Please model this.
Amino acid sequence: MRSMRPKPLHLLCGRAMLLYVLDSLADIAPKRAIVVVGHGAERVTKKLQEDDPDFALDFVEQQTQRGTGDAVSVGLTAMPDDELDDADSDILVLPGDTPLLRSSTIAALIDRHRTTDAACTVLTAQVPDPSGYGRVVRDKDDRVARIVEQADAFGDELAIDEINTSIYCFRLSVLAPALRRLSPENAQGEYYLTDVVEVLHDAGYPVFSLIADDFRETQGVNDRVQLAQAEAELRRRTNESWLRRGVTMLDPERTYIDATVELGTDVTLFPGTMLQGRCVIGDGAELGPDTRLVDCVVGKRSIVEKTIGHDAEVGEDVYVGPFAVLEPGSVVSSGGGTGPFYTALSSDDAGG
Model:
């Protein structure tokens, strides 16, 4: 048995929508995140750096897309040799397109991995329709023996309803040697990260699993339909959180709040309110109906009705609208008001 003292934890992930995945990791405080980027690398890197997470970010480019196993191998090149050989370190491997993944699920996976002293622990899910997913095949001791991709599965394997979510926790010191044993001899001609599970199992290492309580939070986003479904669930979670903290929403299904928005106490949001970016809303403010604010500050007790604003500031005890437009850089001073059909220009525009 390895020592069960707290071990350094690293994070490896790739693709888009990483902000949601990274946000879900704040509670576990990883040592660093290594982000494997491919198409659109510059845009993804810039966005993540602007978000300024609470842990270090390293970026590695996978220039040729040769599968998930190759992506992880590329990511490991960002780590010094002494970390790779540390028998007491673990590494999370996460896809970047699972925005619904909960921090509690990640914490449970890590706990399962460490309490069982596993070489690898796979987050799995039982789904009503496993089509398109890799199937989890177990040995006689109910440990995970291998994962069979849909294209390579046949017979009884296709009937298995426990699927791989592509979320893993590995003992770091055994991962790199296992990756070197991968082969692209499969239906896709790629290096599958899933094959590491079989490599470790056949070498005698313990491989365990944790079945997710809700399979929906592990699903990736691959098209616009799935994107809309994920956004609806994220909106529901965000609104429920604010409602429980004392924010009033007359119609939560028609209220849109980004995860980056800050709301004070006793804020009231009327239907059709959309708050995006780094909005900060003061105590007792009332917004809407039909109001969209992006990167705006609204002071305490102010009312903003049927208004569009970008990068603007509204003071305290102000009435804005209806049908007002707040241009970037504009300021509505405390104690004032705008009246209907008002357009506030930035100080530079007003002076010109």
